[in-house]
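Priority: medium. Attachment 1 of 2:
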């Protein structure tokens, strides 16, 4: 290489790029690759890509599915029983107290009693109505969660709605 050289290195020094510039250029190229290939999106665009329609369709389907139960104020059947007559009765079941009928043993309450007391307090005039509302809202909430997860994977509106 030294024998074939006809000009000094200083003659091409202005054409050479400094190390810091090369490092910065490679860093920007890596970042550009990540943006293009890793699926980074600016936003989910919920209404523009059909998320609202998906949730609305799930709400209508849920209302039709639960229509026979929407006429009452409680879900009854199987292991489902109506909650207490008031929110105060639900909160009375929380904590340590007599369990069972009569002079039963003093024991702590079931942890789910706290969940039912909070849920029943939402509709204090009829606590079982909150459980019915939760059952009706379950399908639209699941559709919303599936749509948001699909929005992280694809930009195609139909695939998001299908999820």
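Attachment 2 of 2:
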């Amino acid at each position: 290489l030294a024998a074939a050289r006809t000009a000094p290195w200083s003659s091409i020094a202005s054409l050479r790029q400094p190390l810091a510039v090369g490092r910065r250029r490679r860093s920007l190229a890596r970042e550009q690759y990540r943006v293009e290939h890793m699926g980074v999106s600016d936003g989910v665009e919920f209404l523009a890509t059909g998320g609202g329609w998906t949730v609305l369709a799930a709400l209508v389907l849920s209302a039709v599915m639960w229509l026979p139960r929407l006429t009452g104020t409680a879900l009854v059947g199987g292991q489902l029983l109506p909650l207490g007559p008031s929110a105060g009765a639900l909160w009375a079941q929380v904590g340590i107290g007599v369990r069972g009928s009569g002079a039963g043993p003093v024991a702590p309450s079931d942890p789910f009693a706290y969940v039912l007391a909070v849920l029943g307090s939402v509709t204090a005039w009829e606590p079982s109505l909150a459980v019915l509302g939760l059952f009706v809202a379950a399908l639209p909430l699941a559709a919303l969660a599936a749509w948001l997860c699909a929005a992280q994977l694809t930009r195609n509106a139909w695939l998001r709605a299908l999820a």
